[in-house]
Write a structure and sequence with these properties.
Layout: H1 5-11, H2 24-64, H3 68-80, H4 126-170
Length: about 170
């Protein structure tokens, strides 16, 4: 599984090598780019989690024999309940003017969170429901792992910026 080239470049250890040789402006640009990518990963992960929860509810509805109307009525509970999604306190909130960034994978996996599966849910064959759930779960795990990698890069860059700011104010 290969994420976008941009993500690969940012999580490569070479990206944060020799930060002390970079200007403060370069560091701020690096941080901004990393934040933008992390926000896109976070958004994609939340979309994947929501779809997983809906598809799991559809699987359960089919098993117990409920109607599609039952599923639709239950959507507010499904999407607002306790889930694997991060709480607001665990989330790095982007600024309101942050530009949206679309990430694309060479194999098109991002289509899992943009396709029409939900619109066709009532007629989706059981085997396709299961395979879509498996692919979504794997994609969500990948997005989560990439977010954690981005957080590590952001932390390194932020520490260098903070170090410079402290050094600049103390002497």
């Amino acid at each position: 599984m290969i994420p976008t080239e941009r993500i690969q470049r940012l999580v490569d250890p070479a990206y944060v090598a020799k930060l002390d040789a970079r200007s403060l402006d370069d560091l701020r640009e690096m941080k901004a780019e990393c934040n933008q990518v992390e926000n896109a990963l976070s958004y994609g992960r939340r979309l994947a989690q929501g779809r997983i929860e809906i598809l799991e509810a559809e699987h359960e509805r089919r098993a117990r024999g409920g109607s599609v109307e039952d599923l639709v009525k239950d959507l507010p509970r499904i999407l607002s309940g306790e889930s694997g999604r991060s709480s607001i306190t665990d989330t790095r909130v982007p600024p309101p003017d942050a530009p949206a960034l679309e990430l694309h994978w060479p194999d098109g996996r991002e289509q899992l969170i943009a396709d029409t599966t939900l619109a066709h849910l009532p007629v989706l064959p059981a085997d396709e429901l299961e395979s879509t759930l498996e692919r979504l779960r794997a994609f969500e795990r990948e997005l989560s792992d990439l977010r954690h990698s981005m957080h590590a890069v952001i932390d390194v860059v932020e520490r260098e910026i903070a170090t410079r700011q402290v050094a600049g104010t103390t002497g």
